Amino acid sequence: MYFNADSNIQPSHSSMTIGVVVPLLSGFYLGEITSSLRLIAQQKGVNLILIRSGGFDDYSHPLAFDHLDGLFTILDSASPQLLQLAIEKGIKVMSLGYTYSGLDVETICSDQKQGIEAAFNHLVKLDHRKIGFCGNLAVKDIQIRFKAYQERCEYWAINAQSDWIFAVEEATLPGGRDAGRQFVARNSDCTAIICATDYNAVGLIEQLKTVNISAPEQLAVVSVDNTLLGARFAPALTTIDQQLEHLVDRALSRLIERIEGGAYQANEIVIPQQLIVRDSCGSPQNEKCSYDNINNVRQQLLDDLANRPEAVHESFFNLAQHGFHSLLNLPSVYEVSLKWASFALNYHANGQDNLYVTQGCAMGEEALHGKDIAQHAFSLAQYPPNKLYNYTLPDPYLITLLPIPEESNGLCGVVAVVDDLHSSSSASGYSMFNNYLDMLSLFIERDALIESVKLREKKAKDMATKIRHLAYYDTLTGIPNRIMVKEQLERHIQQRPRVPHAVMLMDLDRFKFVNDTYGHDVGDALLQHVSAALRRVSRRNDMLARLGGDEFLFFCDVSTDSEALLLANRILAEVEIPFLFKGLELTTQGSIGIAFYPQDGATADDLIKKADIAMYRAKRHSSVNAMLYDCSMDSDVQLQATLEQLLRQAIENEDLSVHFQPQYNPYTGKIYGVESLARWYSPTLGHISPVTFIAVAEESGLIYKLGELVTRKSVREHVRWSAMYPNHILKLSINVSPGQLMRPYFADDYIGLILQEGGNPKNIIIEITETAAITDLEQCVAVLNKFIDVGFEIALDDFGTGYSSLSLLKQLPLKYVKIDRSFIMDIDTDQSSNDIVRSIVMMCHSFGYCTLAEGVETPAQIERVKELGCNLIQGYVYSRPLPVEELDLLLQREYNQI
């Protein structure tokens, strides 16, 4: 049994100790901060504890609080609750780059405005008057930079044009390339551009090079961040350095003043930035900065990494994947020091987190052994202990803590890496050491997840059984589905080829009317009522299945026409029993078509097709509801031809309409996007189901023209809405059928069509089905990647209804997965459905996909899918599919709040 260590244990060091909560330990921005922290802590003679909060949505664990005199948080890496707890314990708190309103947390930041002013003034000095701006305006710091840009335009009496602003969605290389494409498309007259990040600048310059626009000869470029990439790029970037080392120095100095009794100051401390002039702006040689102008830590990183390329390329992966004890390899690989390290697991008991050490290592020892420490559990505030076996904390010390997350933002365990702060590690060696620690955290997190899965093995097996059940059984009715009955048919044909059996296909009359009139909840209840009736009449050797919608199939052990008709009429009589639901009484009827094996067909598909032909003949017959197939019914092919002819005319005359069903973010209640849905009213045949005319289009080869018409109409409306509401992003989902997706040159033609209509690929989602994917998976992935390359996003529709859903998730380049309504309908009343949807959501989120729940009909279902983590909702609880005029009114209410 483990027990808590003495709470009166005090640090054995008299030096001041400062903790730093940082999202990551490495990277050009955070890496320079952590390297600067180490250097400046050495100079000021204080102990340093770095706490990596990456992996936590809201980091709030008070690790090492018993050691700390001060706490320094980088950006918003620590939760307000954690900082409030620190303040209550008397720990002085400082924040870099993020303001915690309502707390006694002093803030220090780099002067984003002054840096842009310096860059703008420099460009004006170089005689530029048409100066553009590129950046992701959704980011707070970039918003500040953009405002400074606008103010400089006003100061210099420059009338900035709207098309000088190149708004991008990412502060990365792809974002810069997008800005480059905008520049070319607008035929921009800008002579200079200020990019909000170095990565945007590099992407912009690379994109413009492809059309022979060079920097700085034809376009001067200035950026922000002073990254290693920007310094080595050709042309080397003129950039704004945020003076991170100076920022860290000032922050630690101020925090020490607070610890030594200085009063709290509410005013933000602002550190000026430095303009680093290089090649990309076209300045004369005598104005350019050398590396000597850069701060000490940045200079060391540039020089050391330039002289040690083999170390830069050392495989972090190969080291980190071996887990905790790979720490022993670091001194020889990165020329860093390591005193000792420990790994502690968290056991949550009696409302408290307790850590006990399960692994330890030190230079020269693979594992540490000792009874004293292993018998103690430490509170989070006490960890790491001052002494582990025979090893104590150096004086002064540098401790790096790697908290490992588990589900729901909980704490799985903590790695503590202890070093002498005055070790002789180089800046680049320490930087790569931190790169390794970031990766080690991910591997330990992965291993913890695997272990957790092993502990839940029985539950996982049960879930796998349930998911397999989904592949063969209809989730609404509980009876077998199309896949299972087809396998049964094929097995019979292979194993008993001479034994006659009947295939009966039944659908319900006027089911669509029930759905449209009374709602899907009534329609679903009716299908369950019919399924129960069909179970009652099924015999021992018969197999019942739901094919989809209101279609049911029997594979019956009968050998004569009379036996088949007798059974069919018993089925129809059972179905006609009145249906009561919420005070509503309905009587339904069915129509049945019968085909016999082997005389009517030799394959499962043939038999189902012949039974389908007979069923439609019975449906059109006024007095007969069950009918045997015969070859004369092939005249129904004529009906198919009629439908094809009318559909061809409707497409040519653009008589088909498009309705749009809204998709909502259930957490904000705001509309996220719309799905476009084709509708056809024929003066000859009336309203024709999309299932019917899309199938006709697929079979007749009209699907491409149909898809093109629906796409043009959808995109035109989307462009109109985008112009009406420029401050709102509305996603447009367009369904693409297998027949379209597999067409040669489809992606190129389709992209051209959308661009011709003025559509923005970044706001358009291409929806595909599993059928489209499994037809030719390799071809499908290649086509989808073409769409992704120009900004489209991909959604997998009706997830879970096909046989291969789980395997497809890994192989398709998806952004969204739409969970089929059959999974959602009883999610608030059936625990198994609830567990299945939870599993699907977790699985999709593990791949980084956004999940959308289809067919959500009730407020209770909204709350349930929200609890399970579904990102988006589509269903009648929000809105049915709407014609354009009605959606116009809905958007007006949503965006104008009228």
Describe what this molecule looks like in 3D.
- The chain has 898 residues and is of the alpha/beta class.
- The chain contains 32 helices and 36 strands.
- The strands form six sheets. It has a twelve-stranded mixed beta sheet. Strands 28, 29, 30, 31, 32, 33, 34, 35 and 36 form a nine-stranded mixed beta sheet that branches.
- Helix 1 (28-44) packs across helix 14 (427-455).
- The protein is globular and about 100 Å long.
Backbone structural class: alpha/beta
Largest sheet: 12 strands, mixed
Q: Which regions have little confidence, pLDDT < 50, spanning 5+ residues? A: 1-13, 306-315
Strand content: 15-25%
DSSP, total strands: 36
* Residue share in helix: 40-55%
Q: Strands of the largest sheet, in order across it? A: 1-16-15-14-20-19-3-2-4-5-6-12
Which outline best applies?
Answer: globular
Q: What's the tally of helices? A: 32
Gyration radius from CA atoms, angstroms: 34 Å
Termini Cα gap: 65 Å
Query: Mean of the pLDDT scores?
Result: 84
Pfam family, one: Peripla_BP_3
Organism: Photobacterium sanguinicancri
Keywords: DNA-binding, Transcription, Transcription regulation
Protein name: Diguanylate cyclase
List the helices and strands and how they pair.
Layout: E1 3-4, E2 17-22, H1 28-44, E3 47-52, E4 70-74, H2 80-88, E5 92-96, E6 106-110, H3 112-125, E7 131-135, H4 140-155, E8 165-167, H5 173-186, E9 192-195, H6 198-209, E10 220-224, H7 228-232, E11 238-241, H8 244-259, E12 269-271, E13 274-276, H9 296-307, H10 309-312, H11 316-320, H12 330-334, E14 340-349, E15 352-362, H13 371-374, E16 376-379, E17 387-388, E18 391-392, E19 397-405, E20 411-420, H14 427-455, H15 457-472, H16 482-495, E21 501-508, H17 511-518, H18 520-537, E22 543-548, E23 551-556, H19 561-575, E24 579-581, E25 584-586, E26 590-597, H20 604-620, E27 626-628, H21 636-652, E28 657-665, E29 670-682, E30 686-688, H22 690-700, H23 703-724, E31 731-735, H24 738-741, H25 746-756, E32 764-768, H26 770-775, H27 777-789, E33 793-799, H28 805-811, E34 816-819, H29 821-824, H30 831-846, E35 850-854, H31 859-867, E36 872-874, H32 884-896
Parallel strand pairs: 1-16, 2-3, 2-4, 3-19, 4-5, 5-6, 6-12, 7-8, 7-9, 9-10, 10-11, 26-27, 29-31, 31-32, 32-33, 33-34, 34-35, 35-36
Antiparallel strand pairs: 11-13, 14-15, 14-20, 15-16, 17-18, 19-20, 21-23, 21-26, 22-23, 24-25, 28-29, 29-30
